[in-house]
Design brief:
Largest interface: B-C, 90 and 95 residues
Order of helices and strands of chain B: HHEHEEEEEEEEEEH
Chains: A mainly alpha, B alpha+beta, C mainly alpha, D mainly alpha
Distance between the termini of chain D: 15 Å
Helix content of chain D: over 70%
Shape of chain B: elongated
Radius of gyration of chain B: 26 Å
Structural class of chain B: alpha+beta
Largest sheet of chain B: 5 strands, mixed
Number of domains of chain D: 1
Order of helices and strands of chain D: HHH
Oligomer: heterotetramer
Number of domains of chain B: 2
CATH superfamily of the largest domain in chain B: Cupredoxins -  blue copper proteins
Radius of gyration of chain D: 17 Å
Strand content of chain D: under 5%
Distance between the termini of chain B: 84 Å
Number of strands of chain D: 0
Largest sheet of chain D: none
CATH topology of the largest domain in chain B: Immunoglobulin-like
Helix content of chain B: 40-55%
CATH architecture of the largest domain in chain B: Sandwich
Strand content of chain B: 15-25%
């Protein structure tokens, strides 16, 4: 081995692209499992602190609209991923942008909700509400950044040809769906139970 | 190899016997704080039972280590040890034996001790100890005596006492070594323990101190208070004197 | 190429960290001023500015040129550092990262050990001599968390990173750059803890129980941020190990042909990737309570301190196994190779490790028998906790069966490995008293607990760590350590350790509670003895440090396989070539082919044995 | 990309629409259930399985959970 090889390290050194993809995928899923536990802890804390109580002041319509936007953004994210995997980079780029915009709208909804909230972070429900939506919004915000990053990479030709080369976009889209899955559980727990 | 095995068995028996003797004659007499309450027996007996159960396990490991270091020496030469892989019955037997041991000590002294310590009669006296940074407030609700920042804890002998433990600010813990049991003082909740002091005691013995045993910041080490266990007459007289002091204020 | 000091990765990292911190703090201050609040608020500023500083640090230290550019569609710079400079930069090489972890944490170990010496000076006599109560708490808390970090990360992060790829016949970890990123999150943890001590420390120990941790000094905020960062290190490291072992084993290396150390690393990784975030989440909740006024743990707002204890111990009990499982692996590995005998009951030992992983997540509340939690939880947690003794017993079976009828080569690593068996026995047995509710009612939070966990963590894991350190030192450095100094270190450490902690069991039973700067005079004599024994223990590390430094720089060159051991890492040169294996070896048997039991690899000195059987 | 690729893309895209339709229906059921059911426990009994089903669809179809153990790329 000579110094010329020093940029080639480990996995990149000897694994096939297919093997590398599987490794990336397993790593990402393990990360999801790990991150999911943080959300699960917050969710259990909500029941521990405030049982099934949900104050009537919670903005139901706003919650439903935000939930719908987030779910819809998963569809556009999925379209982006599918397009890029099939080498349709142009559509992928526009769908990534659309997803990021919908994510930003969701974030605006969170901010609005926080400003309108008629409960304080100092009581049981408020503690759960602000920490759970806050933690989730943090993930959405990072997801928006990642989507824009994926779009930039798409423009730079990183995913040209699709297939295994699309992993970068695919992983980010999977993260976006993961954040959506979290909300699937948070929505009923924060808004609907009583 | 038979000789090694025999030597190992002999060391095992010897170490076990010696540990049993040390546990029985030394540990029991020298280590425990003064047993000041009826419930202490449950805890000290559980402790000794676990110790006795541990001695053969301890003896076995020591024996194997000792004999191996004594008789199975090598010097890094080309010679290898015996190619024993241990895939046969030995692990199964070991697994079975350790499982039985675990189950035994779960039942006794574990669960039996837990049941014994949880059983308590109707208390003769109820007191409330409230922790705050860094002192205890002791309340004798039946006689209306409440001593904020108490200087000592006075308890009557041979009375079954319910101690309610509470906290004004952060976590503390109520512990008197002579009585063995402890309970954390948690803000927002009251937890109880039951103790029956069965001998007169005073703070010349370090076991007779109410010590905060949950880290509570700067004053933690000094959040301790002398405990006096007195005769029931003396206790009544003391309560009366406290009521007078309160009225005089 | 110019290598001026200003261009060194660490200097750049620090520069961007400071820039990030100042900018973020100024922004926060500006917003606060606009809202009519004070410009500076320690809690809020640190909580917001620290992540920005952390990002600056990472980017400056090498993430940006070598990785970050790709995120924006650009091309990353090739990794350029060579020689000793590799250790001070963002290197994706698992061997460099392993040494970075090991050296960093051994330095922290010595630092936290120094804190322990100060603690023992203070506790030598009743009354306050060296410290105020406040300073004592700071020293005790620093010692606690630093040693916890050392115990979690040295064997797994240091030895795991270096050895796992070598042992499984891989050229690196699965995610080399993520691996480097994980390591470079460690210095900020150490820096935060040191700054926290400089700010007067925090007095809530490493457990940081609220409400104390919500009302005490600002050092607490830095502690929380440090531990959350460290949690990320642990999680990312765990994921990396799991993917590496799943996908990068050499051909023929089936799961049950893995060296037992790899099993230890897998088991510990399973725990650290799945449980660590509980500690981080608990500390995040404390920060939210402090900074935003939520009431997770404030009784006045409906919160509960017990919630913290549940979340905290949900991680922190399994964390004990993150510490000891790699220790089990290393000790069993060394016992086998230094006895020249196959590992006894290998499958049972590997299964026992997984059994410990499975049980570790459902025993946490045995730390809470005296906490005032629902008494209905006592019996189930008593039962589950005692069950852990069954898989642990299998580890002992494996250890004892391995040395029986072996050819024990009593070099320094072997002495440490044998001491591990002895110490962990005492640690394990005394754990039973604490899992048993009646005895725990008395022993909880006494020096009995202190002695118990030092026997498991120091006597167990740290002794295994030193066994590993001496055993693999020739592989890491290409040089031999001094056997004489090693043996002096061992005997001083072993005796000092026993003499320090055996009496602690006794004072604990007698009624001395832990985490106190002062204690009743009745416990004075024992404490004086303990302190002197502790100084002996501490002094042993002078020999250790001297041995390591002198041997690394001037020791005799080490052979490729000085122990005539059978695992893969010994079949390559010492230190291994840059990419470990010129040809990926093909594995045909298990790793413990001693005594003609069907060797997996040839064991002459040097040379890659199995590679001749075919490439990858 | 060949016509064949575009066809496959089209098929996958419509699968996405099918999933989002299911999610929409389930979300509406959730919302109505929360209004219609007054008691806590029955409501929980309704909401929990709905959330699990929704999550399952996202995990399976959007996040391609089965790809974790599928061999498709090895063949590609």
């Amino acid at each position: 081995m000579t110094a010329a090889h020093s940029t080639v390290h480990g996995a990149e050194g000897h694994a096939s692209p297919a093997r590398l993809l599987r490794m990336n995928r397993m790593g990402l899923w393990l990360f999801f499992a790990s991150d999911a536990l943080v959300f699960a802890l917050l969710l259990s804390a909500r029941f521990y602190l405030d049982g099934l109580h949900t104050p009537p002041e919670v903005k139901q319509i706003l919650g439903l609209v935000m939930t719908s936007i987030l779910l819809l953004s998963s569809l556009t994210a999925y379209r982006a991923e599918t397009a890029i995997e099939h080498g349709n980079i142009a559509r992928g780029r526009s769908m990534l942008l659309l997803t990021a915009v919908m994510g930003s709208v969701f974030l605006a909804g969170v901010v609005m909700e926080w400003m309108l909230a008629e409960f304080s972070p100092g009581d049981g429900y408020g503690t759960a509400f602000f920490s759970m939506t806050g933690m989730h919004a943090g993930h959405v915000a990072s997801g928006v950044l990642l989507l824009l990053m994926a779009r930039r990479q798409a423009s730079a030709g990183k995913f040209d040809g699709g297939g295994t080369r699309a992993w970068g976009a695919s992983g980010i889209v999977m993260y976006w769906h993961f954040v959506d899955v979290v909300w699937v559980f948070f929505y009923p727990v924060l808004y609907l139970i009583h | 190899m038979r000789r090694d095995m025999k030597l190992m068995l002999a060391v095992w028996v010897a170490v076990t016997a010696a540990s049993l003797a040390v546990s029985y004659f030394v540990l029991r007499t020298l280590s425990f704080p003064t047993p000041g309450a009826a419930e202490d027996g449950i805890i000290d007996d559980a402790f000794m039972a676990l110790t006795y159960m541990a001695t053969p396990v301890f003896g076995l490991v020591i024996a194997v280590l000792f004999v191996a270091m004594l008789r199975f020496r090598g010097s890094g030469g080309p010679e290898d040890g015996a190619p024993i892989r241990g895939g046969g019955t030995i692990p199964k037997v070991w697994f079975a034996v350790t499982t039985v041991l675990a189950v035994v000590l779960i039942v006794y002294p574990g669960l039996t001790g837990l049941i014994a310590i949880r059983q308590h009669a109707k208390p003769d006296l109820e007191i409330t100890a409230t922790g705050s940074m860094w002192q205890w407030t002791v309340d004798y609700p039946a006689s209306g005596v409440k001593i904020a920042g108490a200087k000592e804890l006075v308890l009557p002998v041979n009375q079954h006492i319910q101690v309610n433990v509470a906290s004004k600010d952060i976590l503390h813990s109520f512990w008197i070594p002579a009585f063995r049991q402890r309970m954390d003082a948690v803000p927002g909740q009251t937890s109880s323990i039951y103790i029956t002091p069965d001998r007169i005691g005073d703070p010349s013995d370090a076991a007779y101190r109410l010590q905060c045993s949950q880290l509570c910041g700067v004053g933690h080490a000094y959040m301790a208070m002398p405990v006096r266990v007195v005769s029931q007459d003396e206790f009544k007289a003391w309560l009366v004197s406290q009521q007078k002091t309160a009225e005089a204020r | 190429m110019s290598h001026s000091i200003l261009r060194a990765p660490i200097v750049r990292g620090l520069f961007w960290a400071v820039v990030g911190f100042v900018l973020a703090a100024a922004l926060v201050g500006g917003i606060r001023t606009a809202m009519g609040l004070d410009f500076w608020n320690t809690t809020v500023d640190w909580v917001i500015a620290y992540p920005v500083a952390l990002l600056g640090w990472l980017m400056g230290v090498g993430v940006w040129p070598q990785w970050g550019r790709e995120w924006l569609g650009g091309k990353a710079e090739p990794y350029a550092l060579t020689g000793w400079q590799r250790y001070f930069g963002f290197s994706p090489d698992h061997k460099v990262i392993g040494i970075q972890y090991a050296v960093t944490f051994i330095v922290l170990f010595l630092l936290a050990g120094l804190a322990a010496m100060l603690i023992r000076i203070e506790l030598a006599q009743p009354g306050l001599q060296l410290f105020t109560s406040d300073q004592y708490n700071a020293a005790m808390s620093f010692h606690g968390i630093t040693m916890v970090a050392v115990a979690v990360a040295t064997l797994l992060g240091g030895f795991g990173n270096y050895l796992v790829p070598l042992m499984i016949g891989a050229r690196d970890m699965a995610f080399p750059r993520l691996n480097a990123l994980s390591y470079w999150l460690v210095p900020p943890v150490a820096i935060l803890l040191v700054i926290a001590v400089g700010m007067g420390g925090w007095d809530s120990g490493w457990t940081a129980y609220p409400p104390l941790s919500e009302v005490n000094k600002e050092g607490q905020v830095l502690f929380n941020l440090a531990v959350i960062t460290f949690g990320v290190v642990s999680i990312l490291g765990g994921i990396n190990f799991l993917v590496t072992v799943t996908y990068m084993r050499a051909p023929g290396l089936t799961w049950f042909r893995l060296p037992i150390f790899v099993w230890g690393a897998i088991s510990a990784s399973l725990i650290s990737f799945f449980f660590t975030q509980a500690f981080a989440a608990a500390l995040l909740m404390v920060l939210l309570d402090r900074a935003l006024g939520t009431s997770f743990f404030r009784a006045s707002g409906g919160g509960s301190a017990l919630l913290y204890e549940h979340i905290f111990w949900f991680y922190s009990h399994p964390a004990v196994y993150v510490m000891v499982l790699p220790g089990f692996g290393a000790a069993l590995e060394i016992l086998s190779h230094m006895s020249k005998k196959p590992l006894f009951a290998y499958r049972w030992a590997a299964g026992a490790m997984l059994g410990i992983v499975a049980l570790s997540g459902i025993v946490w509340a045995h730390h809470m028998f005296t906490s005032g939690m629902d008494p209905a939880l006592h019996a189930p947690f008593l039962v589950l906790t005692e069950l852990i003794s069954i898989p642990t017993g299998l580890i002992f079976l494996s250890a004892l069966g391995t040395i029986w009828q072996g050819k024990l080569w009593l070099q320094t690593p072997m002495l440490f490995a044998l001491a591990f068996v002895f110490n962990f026995l005492l640690g394990g047995v005394t754990g039973i008293y604490l899992a048993d509710v009646p005895t725990d009612l008395h022993l909880h939070d006494t020096y009995f607990v202190v002695a118990h966990f030092h026997y498991t963590i120091v006597g167990g894991e740290i002794f295994a760590l030193f066994a590993a350190l001496y055993y693999w030192f020739p592989k890491f450095t290409g040089r031999m350590y001094s056997e004489r100094l090693g043996k002096i270190h061992f005997w001083m450490m072993f005796l000092g350790f026993q003499l320090t902690f055996i009496p602690m069991f006794r004072v604990g039973i007698q009624g001395m509670n832990r985490r106190v700067a002062d204690y009743p005079a009745a416990y004075g004599e024992y404490n004086l003895f303990i302190s002197f024994a502790a100084f002996l223990l501490g002094a042993s590390f002078l020999f250790f440090t001297w041995n390591m430094l002198a041997s690394w720089f001037r020791g005799p060159a080490a052979a490729a396989n000085p122990w005539r051991a059978s695992t893969l890492e010994w079949q390559v040169s010492s230190p291994p070539p840059e990419h470990n294996f010129d040809e990926i070896p093909v594995i045909t048997g298990d790793p413990y082919g001693y005594g003609g039991a069907g060797p997996a690899h040839n064991r002459p000195l040097g040379g890659l044995a199995a590679g001749s059987e075919g490439g990858s | 990309m060949s016509m064949h690729g575009a066809d496959a893309e089209q098929r996958e895209q419509s699968a996405g629409v099918r999933v989002i339709a299911i999610l929409a229906v389930l979300t509406i059921i959730e919302y109505i259930a929360a209004i219609a059911i007054g008691a806590s426990v029955p409501l929980l009994v309704v909401l929990t399985p709905i959330a699990l089903v929704k999550a399952w669809y996202i995990l399976k179809d959007f996040m391609h959970l089965p790809r974790l153990w599928a061999d498709e790329e090895e063949a590609a």
